[in-house]
Amino acid sequence: MNSQLIQIEANIDNMNPELYGSLLDTLLKGGANDAWLTPIIMKKGRPAIMLSVLAPKEQLKDISELIFENTTTIGFRYFAVDRIICEREFEEIFYKNQKIHVKKAFHDGKLVNISLEYEDLANAARALNIPIKILEKEVWATLTSPVF
């Protein structure tokens, strides 16, 4: 499936790094499809962070406001990006009475990926009082669908 979005980028070299986590959450809750941070070196060897955001073009105004209100940047660049995304199916499974969502991805009708929802695993691990990596292995062992 094809889709077009815009990618927004801002180089930030003077912001408290403790604020980046909430910035990403704010952008995602504000309509961004994805947001991430990349360490960069700017002119004169200054360390900085490049903020990148993927969003529908219709969200540009709203995302712009969020960026200017929640960062120290005074400008950014944006450009159109094309992407190819897989068709997705979602299922619910129960493991030891804990609900876990399973996402299956298909490309040209072929199953190419299966993933377990992290938040569900984390919640279930807390409820069952076991490490998440142990729970993940146990859940995978119970799935009957072939991975590939």
What is the 3D form?
Answer: globular
What's the SSE pattern?
A: EHEEHEEEEHH
Find the count of extended strands (DSSP E, 2+ residues).
7
Strand composition percent: 35-45%
- Number of helices, counting only DSSP H or I runs of 4 residues or more: 4
Structural class: alpha+beta
Low-confidence stretches: none
Largest sheet: 4 strands, antiparallel
Provide the residue-averaged pLDDT: 94
For the largest beta sheet, what order do the strands appear in spatially? 2-3-1-4
Gyration radius, in Å = 19 Å
Please tell me about this protein's structure.
- The protein is an alpha+beta fold and 148 residues long.
- Helix content is 29%, strand content 42%.
- The chain contains four helices and seven strands; from the N terminus they run βαββαββββαα.
- The protein has helices spanning 20-29, 60-70, 118-128, 132-142; strands at residues 2-12, 34-41, 47-55, 77-84, 87-95, 98-107, 110-116.
- The protein has a four-stranded antiparallel β-sheet, covered by helices on one side. It has a three-stranded antiparallel β-sheet with strand order 5-6-7.
- β6 and β7 form a beta hairpin.
- The protein is globular, with a radius of gyration of 19 Å.
Brief digest:
The protein has 148 residues and is of the alpha+beta class. The protein has helices spanning 20-29, 60-70, 118-128, 132-142; strands spanning 2-12, 34-41, 47-55, 77-84, 87-95, 98-107, 110-116.
